[in-house]
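note to self — DONT lose this again. spent like an hour looking for the file last time. sequence + predicted structure for the chain T wanted, 149 res
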Amino acid sequence: MSSEAAAAALQAAVGLLAHREHSAAELRRKLGANGHGSAAIDAALAELAEQGLQSDARFAEAYARARFERGYGPLSIRAGLRERGVSETLASAILATFDELWMTRLAELAGRRFGNAPAADVRERARRSRFLQQRGYTPAQVARLLHEP
């Protein structure tokens, strides 16, 4: 591996990080797609981590916070983190910081989408349940919100 290749990979990675946080796996994939060799990518990622410019924990926190603010639930956020190469341990730790807030966010989302009136019948309750579960909330959370047994 030449130092020029490592420097080019590092420069490309810094350019990507200038726009938003990325996980190491995302950077590895994007740099590889741009033609950088695996040795150059490894060197660039090591340098970024050493300088504190790339952190999977920081990426996971930013990603989870943004998705949470947009109304997504823990299942959806966990799946998104997994797709982006964040470890299950780190994802669990990040999601645990939101434990007290899930039901509040779920109630806000349901109120915005359906209003405060209770579901008129079983069909309407099922429709609401499907929507909320598609947003990544657990069946137990949705059932508790909709007052199902």
